Amino acid sequence: MNVQQHGGVSAQGLWRTRGYPTWFTADTATAVGVALRILAITLLGYHISGSTVTAGWIGSASMVAQQVCSVFGGTFVDRHSRRTLIIVNALAGVLCWGTVFVLLGLNLMSVPTLLVISTASSAINGFLGSATDAALKEIIAITDYPKARSLNEGRDAMVNMSGSPISGFLYGIYPWLPFLLSALAYAIAGVAATRLPKHEAPHDEAGNSFIRAFTEGWSWTFRKPLLVISVAAISVLNFGINGIQYAIQLHLASAGTNATYIGFISTGVFLSMFVGALVSSRLSTRAPVGLTTCSAFAFVCIAMLPMVFTHNYWGILISNSVACFPFPIVNALLLGFIFAKAPESMQGRVSVALTVPCNILTAFCSAAAGSLLARWGFSVAVIVFLTLMALSAIAIWVYPPIRRIPKASDWDKISL
């Protein structure tokens, strides 16, 4: 089936596209696995170490491993069966988090062991994780990308909205419980992936070596100024927003806040993002991408300001939640535009060339948040991260080619 020949479809039409329901199931199960463990790792790291700095560095070490492996993973994904790689990645999740479950049950968990397992899991996910998004383009048409990404954003918001408080609640019952359920979710993802349509492993038409294919993916991306500026701005914004998320979690954990209440911080974030995803679904084909993206960056900075002046739980919850409203809109519009314009044979490489630079700073935000909290406190940590976010918003606004990206129906009239 040549998906390039399909016209645009409605959200209901996507579910009738061969392979899409199975792909969505596998991707959703993976998202559930991540949502159930991510808060639990932070809580467990702080519990067994008693230090916000140590807990922060566990998160940062995992992120560094993921980003380093992602650099080469996109090229690997573009040269192998994406269906197979999704299955292997899911199996790794089962083994890693199943091991954490067993060790906690036997009371054998230590900081070095948690560090090794979380780092290994992140490294494997970094190397193989782009296979899921790359496989999506084998299933649906380019014109359906904005709609599909909007559905994904809504799904992610719902999963994470419930995942974090559930993770905190489960951790409060037994620390091993969220890791057991995470392993089971990865198992479901692997089983679902076995039912994806079989496609021939992607190949490089010129018979390029791995190194040449790797170089071509990165050079294609960074020869385009619009992508370079977008990546730089998103990278700084990601560092700021994720730094604040870690600062909130570690601040509340060190203050003795109930784990379930800490989880509700993420619930507020993803409830807001769910609303944003609903708006995104309506705007995905009609809103001008550039102006909407620029406005979203400014909105996030303004919404975060109240946290500079208050340590009150409810003030933090509301301010942080509202700030995250535009993220699904930016992902559906700006990233939808970029991936829709990228060649199908380079989806894995382009995905990595975008996501690794966008997240490379984020790898250190957990450690930065823990260190800032320990030395200067919550307000200073927020000011530092918010200042960086404001700089990213200014960069987006002052670059005309980004502001001028049109709505989806006019994408065929412009190039990257």
Name a few traits of the molecule:
416 residues; Growth Hormone, Chain: A; transmembrane helix; mainly alpha; disordered N terminus; MFS
Structure description:
Pfam families: MFS_1 (PF07690). This is Major facilitator superfamily protein. Its main location: membrane. The protein is globular and about 55 Å long. The chain has one domain (26-195, 211-413): Growth Hormone, Chain: A. The protein has 416 residues and is mostly helical. The protein is built from 18 helices and no strands. Mean pLDDT is 79; it is low at 1-10.
Helical segment count:
18
Mean pLDDT level: 79
Task: Write the element-wise H/E pattern from the N-terminal end onward.
Answer: HHHHHHHHHHHHHHHHHH
What CATH architecture would you give?
A: Up-down Bundle
Q: What fold name goes in the CATH topology slot?
A: Growth Hormone, Chain: A
Number of domains: 1
- Residues in β-strands, percent: under 5%
CATH superfamily descriptor:
MFS general substrate transporter like domains
What is the multimeric organization of the chains shown?
Answer: single chain
Subcellular location: Cell membrane
Organism: Bifidobacterium pullorum subsp. gallinarum
Protein name: Major facilitator superfamily protein
GO molecular function: transmembrane transporter activity
